[in-house]
Amino acid sequence: MKIAVTGASGLIGGALLTALRADGHEVLQLVRRTPRTSDEHRWDPQHHQIDPTLLADVDAVINLAGVPIRPRPFTSGYKERLAASRLDSTTTISDALARAMTAEPGRTRVLLSASAVGYYGDTGSRPVTEQDPAGSDFLAQLCARWEAATAPAEAAGVRVVHLRTGLVLDRSAMLMQVMTPIFRLGLGGRMGSGRQYWPWISLADEIGAIRHLLTADVAGPVNLTGPEPVTNAEFTAELGRQVHRPTVLGVPSVALKLALGEFGRSSVVGGQRALPVRLQESGYRFTHADLPSALRAALGGS
């Protein structure tokens, strides 16, 4: 296939480029800076500008662009950057694909566009699938708007898949870079009550699922999460076991909410018991089906 990728400078994008090329695909990387190699091509999502010929003959676009969500308070300026980076890039790609479909209506194309399990908001211990509605907090509503920005491509006949990704586990992932040093010092523990669910997925399965969805007969939202979701207490206890340290120093909910504001409420002491129903129904088989194996891989074990 000929595949265009946005947001390839991130953790998922970098690993994905390597995997796609190893699979034998021709990959175009869309970048906002000056291109450095022959497979990089300049675009300007902030101003909705892209060379109309770039997507004319692609079979797929994997849209991962967006300012990273970091563990910090959601100021109005930060919220604006998070929203603009996602909506501008997705709208630009979707409009360009719609034009390509108009020019060549018989061609089969797919758009795999990033989203997040934050779409559901804080759902407590209730299992959630792709059939559940959006939540009401900032991140949930941002995900809903993010997914809605693909409407022009979908209306033009592009098969659109929304990648509702959970917490990606890898040694280079922000979550692991923040937590692992603390836990190695024996200073880690549950966060808040520990009863909130943390929907995890290994980097290997995130990449594997995206590769699978390029050709699977699936459209619409797909939860990219491991098949055995765990609570924060279970997650932190397992991380402690993996680094051979106790996990008795928990962080109270009030401290997390005061330090991180809305992010702390929605993404640390809140969570989703998200299940990858549509991914498994489509035939995907997980490399890391349980948290211990995913954490071993993320920490560099076998």
Written description of the protein model:
With about 300 residues, this protein is of the alpha/beta class. It is about 40% helix and about 20% strand. The protein has helices at about 10-20, 75-105, 140-150, 150-155, 175-185, 205-215, 230-245, 255-270, 275-280, 290-300, and strands spanning about 1-5, 25-30, 40-45, 50, 60-65, 110-115, 125-130, 160-165, 165-170, 195-200, 200, 220-225, 230, 275. It has an eight-stranded mixed sheet, sandwiched between helices. A two-stranded parallel sheet has the order 7-14. The longest helix is centred in the N-terminal third of the chain and has 28 residues, at about 75-105. It is globular and about 60 Å long. The two termini are about 30 Å apart.
Strand order of the largest sheet: 4-3-2-1-5-6-8-12
Query: Which range best describes the helical content: under 10%, 10-25%, 25-40%, 40-55%, 55-70% or over 70%?
Result: 25-40%
Radius of gyration: 19 Å
- Describe the largest sheet: 8 strands, mixed
Q: Structural class of the secondary elements?
A: alpha/beta
* Count of helical stretches: 10
Amino- and carboxy-terminal Cα gap: 32 Å
Morphology call? globular
State mean pLDDT (0 to 100 scale). Answer: 95
Beta-strand content: 15-25%
Count of individual beta strands: 14
**Unreliable residue runs:** none
Assembly level = single chain
SSE string, helix = H, strand = E? EHEEEEHEEHHEEHEEHEEHHEHH
